[in-house]
Amino acid sequence: MLIGSEGAVVDRQLLEHAMSECGLQFLGLRRSTGIPPYLAGMVTSRHPEEGRRDRTVGLDDPDRVAKANADWYELGTQFGLFSENRRFLLSLPVPVASEGADEPPEAVWGLVELLDAWDVIGRGGEVGITGWAYGCPAFVMSAVDGSVFVQGTMWQDSMGTAILPAPYGVKALRDVARLNVGKSYRTAAENEDTLAWLARGDEVDA
Fold first, then answer.
1. For the segment 26-51, what is each residue's pLDDT rounded down to a tens digit?
2. Could you list the residue range(s) of the whole structural domain that residue 155 is in?
3. Can you count the helices (H) and strands (E) in the chain?
4. Can you tell me the distance from the alpha carbon of 82 to that of 89, in angstroms, rounded to the nearest whole number?
5. pTM, to two decimals
6. Tell me, what DSSP letter sits at residue 53?
7. DSSP 3-state assignment of 79?
């Protein structure tokens, strides 16, 4: 299986194949990025005045998958999700190595490249990479340099993409980051990334 019983990625070969099925090339896991995936997963909790932008499509729209795909790409292009070679970071659940006790999977960035033929909202959800079923998005992404966070999700009667440019400047996210430093539910890697993220934000503000 691509996703194990605890919801964690367990097989790289299957992961690479599933990525290719939805038009993504998997280039490996990336740790110590200084970009905490859990913070990137808070885009939908932010507000428009903090810079959040949304594109949504009604669940009753027969063309919802095509429209949601187009919206994701247009937002990503407009706000800088993609590098020059169309690479970006995609959060993946990875097992935490521990002795004995079952641990929830850790969110780790996977570096991916967008291929010419892709279907993030439809096939990506169907194979469990960017959602939990066809046309049911559930993903967290970041630009490689952390300059923009992206989240795909579903609401009661719609689905779509929310994007947050310049997350370093969002006070609420920085407050959350400070509260998470050193917590028992954060791994050492998460703490390291959080401290680096806060320090980078301080440099931007200076």
1. 999 999 999 999 999 999 999 999 99
2. 12-167
3. 6, 9
4. 9
5. 0.91
6. E
7. helix
